[in-house]
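User: quick one, sequence for these tokens?
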């Protein structure tokens, strides 16, 4: 009896490009990497990247990490993130991505919820000592057996991955390349609280295909990614899109406008992946028009309810694809094809990629739920991770399983156009850029600051919300929030304002 062929993984996609063009440029660091992490900026061909990936995979295996165990990763948008994730897959591991904005409290929760066996970080990022954060969080997670990092001045007990890369180890183990195997754990926040969201390789590939096909990215593209990679959307839109195109991935650690323009020019990038508000700002300032080689702009919306009211796209040579993000549940893209550059209408039902071609690949389904919210289903949507708890009752007959994820974004159907309008984000959840938290948690943090202290979230057109705080002693409030292990956005809400007259 013939065994069915295994479906591809992300490492399979990398090896296909490696076999076809080993000497082609694969990965390019941000030019300002010395400021970001204190390390030299690098450029790697596919062959050079393959050697580093194998060395890192050997390190993970020799460290005693069993196959299918979880390795947590908290890294900036440099080539180390791509190399580490591909090395973990080559070693048969599952990656849990930890956003850079997370601090010790969130890190510890994630490590314990996923029973992670290892954590990978960078010594410093933008002056913040992430190595110490990882060590402190690992000390509170009983499952962690290995802590490692990139960069210099790593604390005692943290293994140097820069040294591991230099070793010529041939250690390997057989790994079945099957896209149905677990690949990624990302972390979402719903009204029910903190939620780990697992995905297989096929889910990641489906997300990348949805973005690349809708935006019509060509094979061999030179892609600049200026979006944080530590989420499903970040990995699908950068790492996976790059592997599907077989081109070059140029990385930009958000955000320095002059550095971004320099990278786009120096590398002749034809594709830009960035937060949508940033892409529209570059268009408004005519930066996109000044880049004749730029053909495809992918704007990622963390606040999808803002898409339809956004500014029109005016760059004549580059097309904009709006990518709607719904936490870690899923995404879909819609290329702007109207003459005035306005956002495309989103219709319920099967959503193809590319959208305007009949019979095109179905990326998923968009639907209105009975609650008046937006629902998603399709190959990238992890339905089981968001399954609601069974209703209480004495019946022994189980309710039929739900085949979609309710995003909790309020939505309605426009009777005149037949399009879905997303009207509001999930209730009770605050978002500051890519950082999400419960409104009730904000109240609890403010309560711990003592009498007379105030911490609140104010609506913000660009980032969803912005934080503001007031205390009798701002410096003391900042110290208290830091001791709680909270995000620096919370701490900076109590920055001292200068009086102007």
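Assistant:
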């Amino acid at each position: 009896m013939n065994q069915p062929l295994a479906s591809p993984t992300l490492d399979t996609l990398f090896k296909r490009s490696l076999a076809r063009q080993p000497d082609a440029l694969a990965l390019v660091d941000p030019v300002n990497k010395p400021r970001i992490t204190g390390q030299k900026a690098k450029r790697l061909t596919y062959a050079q990247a393959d050697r580093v990936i194998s060395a890192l995979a050997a390190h993970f295996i020799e460290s005693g990490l069993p196959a299918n165990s979880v390795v947590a990763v908290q890294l900036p948008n440099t080539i180390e993130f791509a190399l580490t994730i591909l090395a973990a897959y080559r070693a048969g591991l599952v990656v849990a991505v930890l956003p850079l904005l997370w601090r010790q409290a969130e890190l510890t929760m994630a490590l314990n919820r996923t029973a992670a066996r290892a954590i990978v970080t960078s010594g410093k990022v933008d002056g913040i000592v992430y190595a110490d954060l990882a060590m402190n969080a690992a000390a509170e997670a009983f499952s962690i057996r290995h802590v490692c990092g990139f960069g210099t001045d790593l604390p005692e007990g943290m293994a140097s991955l820069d040294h591991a890369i230099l070793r010529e180890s041939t250690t390997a183990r057989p790994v079945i390349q099957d896209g149905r195997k677990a690949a990624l754990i990302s972390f979402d926040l719903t009204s029910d609280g903190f939620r780990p969201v697992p995905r297989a390789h096929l889910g990641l590939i489906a997300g990348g295909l949805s973005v690349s096909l809708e935006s019509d990215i060509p094979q061999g593209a030179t892609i600049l990614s200026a979006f944080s990679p530590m989420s499903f959307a970040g990995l699908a839109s950068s790492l996976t899109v790059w592997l599907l195109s077989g081109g070059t991935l140029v990385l930009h650690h958000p955000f320095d406008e002059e550095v971004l323009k320099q990278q786009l020019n120096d590398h002749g990038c034809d594709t830009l992946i960035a937060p949508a508000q940033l892409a529209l700002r570059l268009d408004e300032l005519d930066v996109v028009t000044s880049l004749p080689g730029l053909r495809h702009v992918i704007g990622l919306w963390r606040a999808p309810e803002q898409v339809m009211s956004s500014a029109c796209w005016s760059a004549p040579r580059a097309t904009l694809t709006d990518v709607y993000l719904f936490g870690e549940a899923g995404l879909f893209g819609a290329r702007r094809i109207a003459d005035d550059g306005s956002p495309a209408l989103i219709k319920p039902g099967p959503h193809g990629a590319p959208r305007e071609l009949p019979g095109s690949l179905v990326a998923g389904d968009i639907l209105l739920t009975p609650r008046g919210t937006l629902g998603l289903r399709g190959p990238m949507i992890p339905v089981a991770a968001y399954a609601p708890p069974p209703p209480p009752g004495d019946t022994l007959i189980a309710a039929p399983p739900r085949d979609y994820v309710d995003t909790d974004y309020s939505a309605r159907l426009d009777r005149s156009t037949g399009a879905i309008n997303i009207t509001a984000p999930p209730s009770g959840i605050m978002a500051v850029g890519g950082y999400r938290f419960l409104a009730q948690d904000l109240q609890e943090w403010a309560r711990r600051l003592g009498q007379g202290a105030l911490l609140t979230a104010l609506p913000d057109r660009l980032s969803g919300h912005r934080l503001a705080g007031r205390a009798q002693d701002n410096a003391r409030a900042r110290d208290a929030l830091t001791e709680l292990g909270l995000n620096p956005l919370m701490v900076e809400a109590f920055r001292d304002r200068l009086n102007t007259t």
